[in-house]
């Protein structure tokens, strides 16, 4: 028990960390920079260390678009071109401590004509999670109001318990408040928000 008498969360087998789209193009200086997107890196590194120490699986997703993706403005979409497959902008942030040998990577948004924000959309993520015996997802990364939101909603729909790492997400906020509304929507849908302090050491 922590001092306030609230139950802390204990990591255990069946838990997985899902790191969403922490890629250079979503960081300050990138082509679709998320305001303060780099704040998620030290926050996620603490969760990464905790999952590594307990030998729990770590999944990382990458937005991985063809150069003519339909979500790009020149092709009628809402976004500047970003995360083009194989480009520097699509690489994971260098300061993110993903364990090189054991991180399970999921690529998404790979088809030119199909917009896909959720890491479950058109991928084998669900099968890979089930294959590892995962029942509970700890989700952080970028961006709160797009890929995190849709990944969390699909995770809940697929029957996972979902923990939202509230101190390890940041929003694009195309409209002011989008990030806060997305968090509320995830929580309303059944996701449990936590911060680092709520995890048992
Ligand atoms: C994302 C906008 C466009 C995301 C991806 O990862 O949240 N946002 N593509
Ligand atoms: Zn994208």
N-to-C CA distance: 11 Å
Q: Which class of secondary structure composition applies to the elements?
A: alpha/beta
CATH topology: Rossmann fold
Number of helices: 4
Structure description:
It is a single chain. With 201 residues, the chain is α/β, with parallel strands linked by helices. The protein has a single domain, classed as Isochorismatase-like (Rossmann fold, 3-Layer(aba) Sandwich), CATH 3.40.50. Helix content is 23%, strand content 18%. The chain has 4 helices and 6 strands; from the N terminus they run βαββαβαβαβ. A 6-stranded parallel sheet has the order 3-2-1-4-5-6, sandwiched between helices. Strand 5, helix 4 and strand 6 form a beta-alpha-beta unit. It starts with 14 loop residues before the first strand and ends in a 7-residue tail after the last strand. The model has no long low-confidence stretch (mean pLDDT 96). The structure holds pyrazine-2-carboxylic acid and zinc ion. Zinc ion (ZN) binds next to loops.
Protein topology:
Layout: E1 15-20, H1 40-53, E2 58-63, E3 104-108, H2 125-131, E4 136-142, H3 144-157, E5 161-170, H4 178-188, E6 192-194
Parallel strand pairs: 1-2, 1-4, 2-3, 4-5, 5-6
Helix pairs in contact: 3-4
Bound molecules: pyrazine-2-carboxylic acid and zinc ion.
């Amino acid at each position: 028990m922590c001092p306030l008498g609230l139950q802390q969360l204990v990591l255990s087998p069946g838990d997985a960390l899902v790191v969403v789209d922490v890629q250079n193009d979503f960081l300050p200086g990138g082509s679709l920079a998320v305001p303060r997107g780099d704040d998620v890196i030290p926050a996620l590194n603490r969760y990464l260390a905790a999952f590594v120490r307990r030998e729990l699986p770590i999944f990382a997703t990458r937005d991985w678009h063809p150069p003519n993706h339909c979500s790009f403005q020149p092709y009628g979409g809402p976004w500047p071109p970003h995360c083009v497959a194989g480009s520097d902008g699509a690489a994971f942030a260098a300061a993110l401590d993903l364990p090189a040998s054991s991180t399970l990577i999921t690529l998404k948004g790979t088809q030119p004509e199909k917009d896909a924000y959720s890491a479950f959309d058109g991928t084998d993520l669900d099968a890979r999670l089930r294959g590892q015996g995962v029942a509970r997802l700890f989700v952080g990364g970028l961006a709160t109001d797009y890929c995190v939101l849709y990944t969390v909603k699909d995770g809940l729909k697929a029957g996972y318990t979902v923990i939202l790492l509230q101190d390890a997400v940041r929003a694009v906020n195309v409209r002011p408040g989008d990030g806060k509304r997305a968090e509320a929507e995830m929580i309303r849908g059944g996701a449990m928000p936590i911060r680092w302090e709520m995890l048992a050491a």
